[in-house]
Every structure is written in structure tokens, then in C-alpha cells.
Specification:
- The protein has one domain.
- The chain has 1 helix and 5 strands, in the order E-E-E-E-H-E.
- The chain has 88 residues and is mainly β.
- Strands 4-3-2-1-5 form a 5-stranded antiparallel beta sheet, with helices on one face.
């Protein structure tokens, strides 16, 4: 049996709506487009004051014109996880 650590796998395919988790801590982000049509990582970590905002100062890292630029700048610090929305 082979175990693959997806955090080191550069071939992850990211798209709008994907949930990412930081490699360094338990921060969670959602890939979204902001009001300037740039890709950014919106903070969705529970119990944070600045989460669910696409203002440039509230997002993790910088915002990028293309998804490929966003991926290249971000993939080494974040990894994609399976996630689902639960509405109660």
C-alpha cells in the first residue's frame, strides 16, 4: 500500500469554491473572487472577527488576476480538503 501526502503534491487542481487548510496551523479558507474579479482566499476559520470578507486586508495573502497565478503563489502553504456545506 502506498500513502500519498497531498500537501506535497503540486498537481492539485483548485477552483472557485474549494476549501483550503493551511499547512502551518488550522486556518481555513475558501477560494472566491472579490469585487475586483481577482481570486483570493477568504478566511472561513470559525470565531474570527474578519472572516467571510473579501476585502483585500481580510483575505489570506494577496489577490490574483488568474487562478493559475493564485495557485502558484499559494500551493506551498495550503492544501485542498474535502468539505461540504451543512445548513441546519
Amino acid at each position: 500500500m502506498e500513502i500519498i501526502d497531498k500537501r506535497t503534491k503540486k498537481e492539485e487542481h483548485w477552483q472557485l469554491g474549494d476549501v483550503l487548510v493551511a499547512n502551518s496551523d488550522d486556518s481555513k479558507g475558501l477560494i472566491v473572487k472579490n469585487s475586483n474579479a481577482e481570486y483570493c482566499l477568504m478566511n472561513i476559520t470559525p470565531d474570527k472577527r474578519w472572516n467571510y470578507s473579501t476585502a483585500e486586508d481580510d483575505c489570506f495573502g494577496d489577490c490574483y488576476k488568474t487562478l493559475s497565478d493564485f495557485y502558484e503563489a499559494t500551493y506551498s502553504d495550503w492544501h485542498k480538503v474535502n468539505a461540504k456545506l451543512v445548513i441546519e
